[in-house]
Amino acid sequence: MKQKLAILLWGATIDRPEICATPFVHAAAAAAFDAEVEIHFAGPTVRLLVAGVATSLRPWPGVDTSIYDMMRQAANLDVKFYACGMAMHALVGPDETLIPEYAGTAAASEFVQRALDPVWATLVY
């Protein structure tokens, strides 16, 4: 059984919060099985890393749990959050604060390396 999971967020953007919940639930589930888990934020998904943005998002009407709550649950299980440096530069302002769970930047090649490595499983949202 594979013990490492890399998740790429690309289409799970702030304008589609109903899609944002699943990657973090899957990440938390994999981490609960003692897998090493990374989430790579690409393109507009980097906006989820800006403090306050995911806090205001709910996956469905009437749900009290925010997307940020789901992100924190995954991070509390040692899921690492990495962002595309180019997307961060283009879509996150220099005066914006990032969430404390943000672990740093990772190049696209790092996710591709995970996808090519037989030790890693990958998911794309």
Textual characterization of the structure:
This protein is an alpha/beta fold. It has one domain (4-124): Hypothetical Protein Ychn, Chain: A (3-Layer(aba) Sandwich). 34% of the residues lie in helices and 20% in strands. It has helices at 17-32, 67-76, 85-91, 108-116, and strands spanning 4-9, 36-41, 80-83, 102-105, 120-124. Strands 4-3-2-1-5 form a 5-stranded parallel beta sheet, sandwiched between helices. Helix 1 (17-32) runs parallel beside helix 2 (67-76). The longest helix is centred in the N-terminal third of the chain and has 16 residues, at 17-32. It is globular and about 35 Å long.
Task: Give a short summary of the structure.
Helix 1 (17-32) runs parallel beside helix 2 (67-76). The chain has a 5-stranded parallel β-sheet with strand order 4-3-2-1-5, with helices on both faces. With 125 residues, it is of the alpha/beta class.
Tag the structure with descriptive keywords.
125 residues, alpha/beta, Hypothetical Protein Ychn, Chain: A, 5-stranded parallel beta sheet, 4 helices, 5 strands, 20% strand, globular
Topology overview:
Blueprint: E1 4-9, H1 17-32, E2 36-41, H2 67-76, E3 80-83, H3 85-91, E4 102-105, H4 108-116, E5 120-124
Parallel strand pairs: 1-2, 1-5, 2-3, 3-4
Helix pairs in contact: 1-2
Number of separate domains? 1
Beta-strand share of residues = 15-25%
The spatial strand order of the largest sheet comes to 4-3-2-1-5
| Strand count | 5
Our Rg estimate from Cα atoms comes to 14 Å
What is the first-to-last residue Cα distance? 22 Å
